[in-house]
Specification:
With 213 residues, this protein is α/β, with parallel strands linked by helices. The protein is built from 7 helices and 7 strands; from the N terminus they run βαβαβαβαβαβαβα. It has a single domain, classed as P-loop containing nucleotide triphosphate hydrolases (Rossmann fold, 3-Layer(aba) Sandwich), CATH 3.40.50. The protein has a 7-stranded parallel beta sheet with strand order 3-2-4-1-5-6-7, sandwiched between helices. Helix 2 links the parallel strand 2 and strand 3. The two termini are 13 Å apart. The mean pLDDT is 93.
């Protein structure tokens, strides 16, 4: 199974959520096989993992950095898609054609977004691109850095639009400074509390889909 975290523009917390989701899966099921591939030019996921390897607590899984010279082949992507292992992909915030196979054949694309004008525009642009390439992937939208005290004037209209593309997770990931300190060795209580409701929705969706195949 391939779960790809992707957006058209950076800044929505994509890598932070990809790390948190990988950690959460491994904590829930320590026997679960997890593969992580960092495609992002900034290599934030990979560099975090490298740093964590030098610490007292080992990372929960391995991370491989993928650059332009060694992308996953179509055959590798298909094999990972059919595998029982969970493969987490962190894509850069761009629409480069070289990522098209992953955007077409991932089992799920998780798309973090915010309600700012810039994020709204980039999220809608990204989904139009996914429509154009006729992706087979299911899209899951997750509100990131959500401030429940703020009145987002475009929330209702954007939510309705995103529901036409895929599944909009009901529970947001609220804006929490503690998530900026996340690493690949685990989740503390506050970090787990910040993401568990939203991630449980995603996991239940995946379990349901697997049960009806």
């Amino acid at each position: 199974m391939i779960i790809t975290f992707a957006t058209q523009k950076g800044g929505a917390g994509k890598t932070t959520l990809a790390i948190a989701f990988s950690n959460y899966l491994k904590i829930l099921n320590p026997e679960l096989e997890i593969n992580v591939y960092d495609y992002d030019y900034q290599r934030s996921f990979y560099e975090k993992w490298k740093t964590d390897k030098l610490g007292e607590r080992p990372p929960l899984y391995d991370v491989k950095y993928i650059d332009d010279t060694n992308p996953l082949s179509i055959e590798q992507i298909w094999n990972l898609e059919e595998s029982d292992a969970y493969t987490i992909i962190d894509l850069p915030g761009s629409l480069d054609i070289e990522y098209m196979p992953l955007l077409m054949y991932s089992n799920y694309i998780i798309i973090p977004f915010e309600y700012s004008d810039v994020s709204t525009h980039s999220t809608l642009t990204f989904n139009e691109f996914l429509n154009e390439i006729d992706t087979q992937s299911e899209r899951i939208f997750i509100r990131s850095k959500y401030d429940k005290s703020y009145n987002y004037v475009n929330q209702l209209s954007l939510d309705e639009k995103l529901k036409s593309y895929g599944l909009l997770i009901k529970n947001p990931v609220y804006k929490r400074n503690i998530l900026q300190k996340i690493d690949t060795t685990g989740l503390n209580y506050d970090q787990k509390y910040a993401i568990r409701k939203a991630f449980n929705e995603i996991i239940e969706k995946i379990k349901h889909d697997k049960s009806i195949i």
